[in-house]
Amino acid sequence: MLTVNKLLPGGQGLAQVLLKRAPSVELDWDVRQKSRFDATDSSGRHLGVFLPRGTLVRGGDVLIAEDGSMVRVLAAPQPVLVVRPCSEHGTPFDLVRAAYHLGNRHVQLELQPDHLKFEPDHVLADMLRQMHLIVTEEQSAFEPEGGAYAAGGHSHGHGGHDHHDHGHAHALAPVAAPVRGKPLNIAVRAADVPHVHGPGCGHDH
Questions:
Q1: Where are the transmembrane segments (predicted)?
Q2: Which parts of the chain register pLDDT below 50?
Q3: What CATH superfamily is the domain 2-75?
């Protein structure tokens, strides 16, 4: 077994010609969020990875083995739920609302300009569909945002999200109202704002 104890984020400082020649290892997020794991690279070498606790391995990173050899990390496609706004009746702001609710549930979440991505969870998928978002299951690389779990090195397995004591209430949106010439933030439920859908929307109501 070849020991690996060093990681170069994004292969920084390495010549592209060297990276292209290096063997690779394809890992899903469940493995890449761990600091210690075994793997086999594309040349058939058995790797024992021992990184500083709390280290997250990203697609594009380079592992350095004890013999000085390099191994390129590829983010393996895996089952994920992809969340998009309804193109006919929704707005991009719907994704902001979805990210807020998922963040309240401590879900590891990949943020993109036009979609969100997280590991499969049918309870959360149903909640998002009730919010008039399009949720599809796909096979794709998963690179969630950093944050508290990145610093603490927590390991979340597939389907391991905890939903106890979380209500599925709508988000509160601030509305400005003038009082004696000064704005006052008043919270109203998103459910109180009309949301109109036509026959081609495709949501389950």
A1: none
A2: 148-201, 205
A3: Urease metallochaperone UreE, N-terminal domain (2.60.260.20)
